[in-house]
Specification:
heterodimer, A: 543 residues, alpha+beta, seven-stranded antiparallel β-sheet, five-stranded antiparallel β-sheet, 20 strands, B: 698 residues, alpha/beta, Nucleotidyltransferase, domain 5, Dna Topoisomerase Vi A Subunit, Chain: A, domain 2, Dna Ligase, domain 1, 27% strand, globular
């Protein structure tokens, strides 16, 4: 088939994205999972018949966009394309083949038009439960982190594989909800197939080859141009991150050579006996994400954006953990990959990088409401963003993950836990010509009348968010129960009347604080983001 | 004979429509908006309209008014110096915000500043607990002292009172409002549970600050309008259109200006619903596209879908999440940052991108010849032959085709190595896809099957794109309504007096008794009916609608369930199946084992429909010269430019039929009829088009 002209290519490309958006929305609205509906912990990706990714839903979780293409290849190795039939649905939640931890299910459906295989639709979403001990930092091996489905067919030519269904049903706590969410994915991929066929009919296409070639070629060209604009060289960075007891070191060497980038994590510390290890698929996903933010943030993602990148890490290091390392809280370490890469490139492209973020805290809680009903839920708090050239970091905004505020009114009514206060913490943003975003204080009191267990996956309690180019560091995170500081990773019991206090970390500053616009310093003091004392100390401003 | 007048103030034009009640005679008028004081255009336009109609203001029974004043005040931040009182420990709610990035890849996203700066927020010692129990009593004396300082030291003119859990128990907010009113009678006060008592403090409080911020300005504006109309001799009633498609008295409008945020577009949707009833099409898509944005809405069983949240004053490329959220009842509008003025360029993919930047009215598209040098959608539509260089705005504005072609060639066609016509088609079709995508996603989220329903197209650019968008959506029928150029003003004429309120109160269905159910609805019904009674609406004319937002326990999304006219134990018994039906309509399945909860209780009272199901007819005479000639226009099915007939919309006779390609011109727009589409003028003068549908692959 001949090339598609650039006019049609643009139009059809947008349509592919529209199709994935529609699939994603159909899953969000039918999901029981808190992660899916509050944090958009899901994704949808379209592949051509060779298994190259060509489009993804706009609101997909970036990590999944990075893992899905590899999951697709693993699936095609297990079930070669020529063996697949209409109505087949292939699934897996294996952390090393999927997204890095067990709760995320990857659901793939081959799409046929007039009897010919034209491509694949994959959706990924975080299930309400997957059995095992539940997510906890204290898991010591993958075997307690729930059921693992190897790559298998959930449906064969439209017929359910009853053994797999039964196996899953007896292994999870809330089977109806889990199946509800699983079926939302199964149906979503079916909707995707219908939309693709309608689209092809409208534009008179019999296959997606020329379109896929065009989409991948144009994306690859765009990202290569921008990589080529980064000066060649080897850029290194190393950060310490708190692990079990003491730190684990993350190291990166980024080689920019013409229009290609090689990212290697050699020198990073070993895996640990705690559920914060990162399989390589997740490391690669966040590496791709960081490069995309720095080069081509505005264009849709696909195979073309990945082709110029190579990501490696030594086997057994915490960024390429091997079985049976536990991985449930892999984000706790994985999030640091983004600032690690930005820090390495800070010298090369100073006007594009963002200073280190304060990041965010995600708490898992289990207990009872005042009426005695069981609750298993999550609470979320964000620290400050890092500053960048020309832009202060925003307060209380998550990065590199995304999530959304838990309204105090909703939280109190659903849990019986009272939010005593939530306040911005002045002076927690790193000083700089552009100031880091401030963090916040939250105080929660268990007024439910029953004990609550709370799992913390905290970070940045020892190592603050670093500023760049002369900008100062943000303030550190802190957890306390009844006023007593507690370790940032662990499972605790909040008895009735107990309080949990969290200080969220600030983001790093950017540039020399002495160069900050005086009017902005005064504004910060007036609004209370910076105290008068700190203005005098950090900015030389006498009140 | 009595008359109603509808007046819609838009960004560029103020539209007028006069309806002779009974005969259905419709007279329309349009003049430029006067941004400095919008009441000027209103007060000079009313006599002009009456002169056109040959009638006297003395017999006008009602003036219904829609305005973008509130939205503009928020976008331009032109409102009162506003202070805020919050529960101790929570004054930073507005800054903490949504704790969310609305774009995952763009590191430079920005957010709107809160309407009340941190310096003007004060904490109050008090605490309502979840469920509405008092945790900490209110210290009223310290409140008075705090407010005194805000007024005297900071010059606060309006005050937002925002307390945690006030949605469950507003007692503390009311006590504060009471004492503040007594001590500071000139201060405007908005309390969060009064403005809209929904759970979620950030959104409710932001809404309350919007209300406070715009209240003094809107009060003064209504003063001028009422005084001016009175001076003209107007003796009827003035009503203001709300975002949810009903009208309210000026008194109510003064109390809740934030409810007037989107009144113009809401009125346009009402016209579509009204047409649906006349055409026996219960399910419709309303599609309005003007100079900077396009808006859409879904109409199910004759009623526009509503929601209880919208976003105002977006700060970053019109992106969702970059604005301020308002919790109010609104017609559920789809907003798309694409209009005639949207600028097209080649993006870093090497593909055509349209919007979100807009050339606006100044400098406007290239073809206006006012200095615009960036290709816009209107420029593309001119090059494609859809718009006439000589009949734009009825010939009042000549368009410059040659220069437009030069610029499109240089900026788009050259770099892409295609012809100017292909580049123009790229712009046009990219927008069609954007619109279709927005409709699809919106419908998909709401479980609305748009295939098979009818689309109503209006606005300056809507009729140019509608038929092709409809094909993409597999929508078989497109209606180009009579009076499309002033659709919102017409919508005002058919909008009933109505008021709506809601309460958030979570109740497990298994714990609910019939008595509870009745006891919870009764005060809400009283409250909303009280907005209608002073206008002389009899009890038996008040139409009460009730809805419950329900969900399976543990699921985050509520489904709105419209309640039938059942009461007591009958209603209670019907609730599980009503919910299951509504749930299945959206999600295609339901669960009979999962426990159900009620989250929100919603009630609306509406007065009689001013013109019932009556029709209206534009006051123009058909002429003999309906076919004006032919023009070359671009249709990809015809492999490029094809010669097609051009008709004058106003002189096409009832019953006229023709098949596309064809162009039908009216003063404000052109209806583009695609190849093979079949068109007919119906009895009321509406142009109805049946679009060609394609078969999907199997």
């Amino acid at each position: 088939m001949k090339d598609i002209d650039p006019v049609n290519l643009g139009i059809m490309w947008d349509r592919l994205t529209a199709i994935t958006d529609e699939i994603l929305l159909s899953i969000v609205r039918t999901s029981f999972s808190v992660g899916v509906r509050e944090a958009w912990d899901l994704a949808c990706v379209l592949f051509d018949r060779e298994g190259r990714s060509i489009a993804q839903a706009t609101l997909s979780m970036p990590a999944f966009i990075g893992t899905a293409p590899f999951t697709m290849q693993h699936m095609l190795r297990r079930f070669p394309a020529e063996t697949l039939a209409p109505g087949d649905v292939v699934v897996t939640n294996d952390p090393w083949l999927g997204t890095g931890h067990t709760p995320d299910i990857c659901v793939m459906r081959p799409v046929f038009a007039d009897g010919e295989l034209i491509g694949f639709v994959m959706t990924i979403s975080h299930l309400p439960d997957i059995g095992g001990a539940g997510l906890s930092p204290q898991a010591t091996s993958i075997y307690v982190e729930g059921l693992i489905l190897p790559i298998c067919k959930l449906y064969q030519a439209g017929e359910p594989n009853q053994d797999i269904h039964d196996l899953l049903r007896v292994n999870v706590r809330t089977p109806d909800q889990v199946f509800g969410d699983l079926m939302a994915n199964v149906n979503g991929t079916a909707v995707g197939g219908r939309l693709l066929r309608e689209f092809m009919a409208e534009y008179g296409l019999t296959d997606l080859r020329a379109l896929a070639d065009g989409v991948i070629r144009q994306s690859e060209r765009a990202i290569r141009e921008r990589i080529a604009a980064i000066p060649d060289g080897v850029y290194r960075n190393e950060v310490d991150v708190e692990a079990v007891e003491g730190a684990v070191s993350l190291a990166v060497a980024i080689t920019v050579d013409g229009d290609e980038v090689a990212i290697d994590f050699a020198g990073s510390g070993p895996s640990v006996p705690m559920a914060i290890n990162v399989p390589l698929c997740y490391t690669r996903a966040f590496s791709t994400y960081a490069i995309k933010c720095l080069t081509t943030p505005s264009i849709p993602n696909n195979q073309g954006a990945v082709n110029p990148l190579r990501v490696t890490a030594p086997e057994g290091c915490i960024l390429n953990a091997q079985r049976p390392s536990p991985t449930g809280g892999r984000h706790t370490i994985g999030w640091f990959i983004v600032p690690l890469i930005m820090g390495a490139l800070a010298a090369a492209i100073p006007d594009r990088v963002q200073a280190e973020p304060g990041m965010a805290s995600l708490f898992l809680l289990q207990g009872k409401r005042p009426d005695g009903r069981d609750v298993a839920t999550q609470y979320f708090l964000a620290g400050g963003l890092g500053a960048m050239a020309g832009l202060d970091g925003r307060q209380t905004t998550p990065s590199p993950t995304n999530n959304a505020v838990v309204p105090s009114e909703v939280w109190e009514s659903e849990t019986g836990i009272t939010v005593v206060r939530r306040r911005l913490l002045p002076d927690t943003g790193g000083p700089g010509e552009f100031r880091g975003g401030v963090g916040q204080e939250a105080v929660l009191r268990n007024d439910s009348g029953y004990p609550y267990t709370v799992s913390l996956f905290g970070m940045r309690t020892v190592y603050p968010a670093r500023g760049y180019h002369g900008g100062g560091d943000g303030q550190r995170r802190r957890f306390a129960i009844n006023g007593e500081q507690v370790a940032p990773k662990g499972r605790y019991v909040l008895r009735p009347g107990d309080t949990l206090t969290v200080h969220e970390a600030g983001g790093g500053g950017f540039g020399d604080p002495k160069a900050r616009d005086r009017a902005r310093v005064a504004q910060d003091v007036a609004a209370g983001f910076v105290t008068a004392d700190a203005a005098a100390r950090d900015y030389g401003e006498t009140p | 004979m009595s008359f109603r007048i509808g007046i819609d103030i838009g960004g560029t034009f103020t539209d007028f429509a006069l309806l002779e009640v009974g005969s259905g005679r419709l007279v329309i008028h349009k003049q430029l908006t006067t941004p400095a004081d919008p009441s000027e255009a209103v007060l000079s336009g009313v006599p002009a309209l009456l002169a056109k109609a040959g009638s006297d203001i003395g017999v006008v029974e009602a003036v219904v008014h829609g305005t973008t004043l509130i939205t503009n005040a928020l976008i331009e931040r032109k409102g009162a110096v506003t202070g805020m009182l919050c529960t101790a420990g929570f004054m930073d709610v507005l800054d903490i915000g949504m704790e969310r990035r609305y774009d995952m890849y763009d590191l430079r996203i920005t957010y709107p500043d809160p309407l009340v700066p941190r310096q003007l927020r004060r904490e109050v010692d008090e605490r309502m607990l979840a469920g509405g129990r008092v945790g900490t009593a209110l210290d009223l004396e310290s409140v008075a002292a705090t407010v005194e300082k805000l007024v005297e030291d900071d010059g606060v003119e309006a005050l937002a009172v925002c307390l945690l859990n006030a949605y469950a128990n507003p007692a503390h907010e009311l006590a504060i409002a009471d004492i503040v009113r007594k001590r500071f009678p000139a201060l405007y006060i908005s309390t969060s549970a009064d403005v809209f008592p929904f759970i979620r403090e950030y959104e409710r409080w932001t809404t309350t600050t919007m209300n406070a911020f715009t209240q003094p300005m809107f009060d003064r504006y209504l003063d001028r309008l009422e005084g001016g109309l009175e001076a003209l001799g107007f003796k009827g009633s003035l009503y203001i259109m709300t975002s949810s498609g009903g009208t309210v008295t000026p008194q109510t409008a003064r109390r809740y200006p934030v409810r007037m945020l989107e009144s113009g577009p809401a009125a346009g949707v009402l016209v579509s619903a009204h047409l649906g009833a006349l055409l026996a099409q219960p399910n419709m898509l309303a599609y309005d596209m003007g100079g900077t944005t396009a808006k859409g809405a879904l109409i199910r069983h004759g009623a526009p879908l509503k929601r209880y949240e919208m976003e105002v004053a977006r700060t970053h490329d019109f992106k969702m999440g970059s604005g301020l959220p308002a919790k109010i009842p609104v017609i559920d509008l789809i907003e798309i940052g694409a209009g005639g003025g949207s600028i097209a360029d080649v993006d870093i993919r090497g593909m055509i991108r349209v919007g979100p930047r807009s050339a606006g009215a100044d400098p406007g598209p290239i073809c206006y010849g006012q200095g615009g040098e960036q290709p816009t959608l209107t420029d593309a539509n001119l090059l494609l032959g859809y718009l006439s260089a000589d009949f734009f705005l009825g010939g009042d504005m000549a368009l410059d085709t040659d220069h437009t072609k030069d610029v499109v060639g240089r900026v788009l066609a050259g770099p892409l190595d295609v012809s100017e016509a292909r580049a123009a088609w790229g712009i046009h079709e990219t927008v069609n896809e954007d619109i279709a995508r927005a409709f699809r996603n919106h419908a998909s989220e709401r479980g609305f099957d748009y295939r098979g329903c009818a689309m109503v197209a209006f606005g300056g650019s809507g009729p140019v794109h509608a038929a092709r968008v409809a094909r993409k959506l597999r929508v078989p029928t497109v209606v180009f309504p009579v009076g499309a150029g002033v659709a919102s003003a017409v919508g005002l004429l058919i909008s009933p007096l109505a008021f709506e309120t809601a309460r958030s109160e979570r109740v497990a269905l298994e714990d609910l008794t019939a008595e509870d159910l009745a006891a919870r609805f009764a005060p809400l019904v009283e409250e909303v009916s009280d907005y209608l009674r002073p206008e002389g609406i009899a009890e038996d004319e008040i139409r009460v609608s009730r809805w419950l937002d329900m969900r399976y326990r543990g699921q985050g999304y509520e489904i709105e369930v419209s309640l039938p006219d059942l009461h007591g134990s009958e209603l209670l018994a019907a609730l599980p199946s009503l919910f299951a039906e509504a749930y299945e309509a959206v999600f295609g399945r339901s669960f009979d084992q999962e426990p159900i909860e009620i989250i929100n209780w919603k009630v609306e009272a509406a007065g009689p429909r001013p013109i019932g199901d009556g029709h209206y007819r534009l006051d123009v005479a058909p002429g003999p010269q309906a076919l004006k000639g032919t023009r070359l226009a671009y249709f990809p099915e015809g492999d490029g430019f094809v010669s097609c007939p051009v008709y004058d919309r106003y002189t096409l006779a009832v019953g006229a039929r023709f098949t596309g390609p064809a162009l039908v011109e009216e003063r404000e727009s052109t209806c583009v009829i695609g190849v093979g589409d079949r068109a007919v003028i119906d009895d009321l003068g509406n142009l109805i088009v049946q679009t060609v549908q394609q078969e999907a692959l199997s």
